[in-house]
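Note on ligand handling. Small-molecule inputs were canonicalized before submission; formal charges were left as drawn, and no protonation-state enumeration was performed. Where a ligand contained multiple stereocentres, the stereochemistry in the source SMILES was retained. For zinc ion, this procedure yielded the string shown in the input block below.
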Amino acid sequence: MESTVAQKLEALLNLQKIDSRLDAIFKVRGALPEEVQDLEDEIIGYETRLDKFNTDLVTLEDDIKRFKDNIKESEKLIKKYQEQQMNVRNNREYDAITKELELQDLEIQVSKKKIGESQARIETKNLEVDELKGILSERKKDLDNKKSELDTIVSESENDESKLKTDRDKALKKIEERLSKSYTKIRTNAKNGLAVVMVKRGACGGCFNVVPPQRQADIREKKKLIVCEHCGRIFAGVEDEIEEEVTKKKRSRA
Ligand SMILES: [Zn+2]
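Structure output:
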């Protein structure tokens, strides 16, 4: 499929028009899609933290249960030792049992202290969980609002968008790959998304630098692809000033 330069330029300009309309649609959506994504990520982060807190709470409760079991165990031993102490045969046995009793008493103190510490940590953790739940429900509300805002905007333009995307696929097929690649490259680097422009009032339609008359004549001829020497955008043609003036006069009269 060999096409003339004029046909190539026409195809490029057509693609540019479609892309500019798509750009306008995405501009209306603005930062909303990104904001929705950010909120979704943030919520996942908070939910992960909440899961971790809940696991911590379970561990702390388990600890307390274990300490309480230890205390029960010590109390049983103490009871046993006290009974043994009633039946000792000498002082040496009596002293040995007293030492055991002291030891178990100490064990109980340690366990009680650890239970207190765990309970304090549970209280702190519960406060953190409450705070986190508050933040989480706020963020979820934000997300719902932003999502419905975005859904509204998207639904208003989704028909246009899908039609333009179909048009774009068709338009792209008419352009050789090498050319569409440089088109994409120029467009990505251009702030206004324009890769293909017309010469308007003697200036580049993309960067507004003056295009010399001889160059304009070359552009009009469409014998070869000419790019702006300032910004690198592709010139699709020269817009007729007279025609534009006439349209303007017509408009001002209306
Ligand atoms: Zn330019």
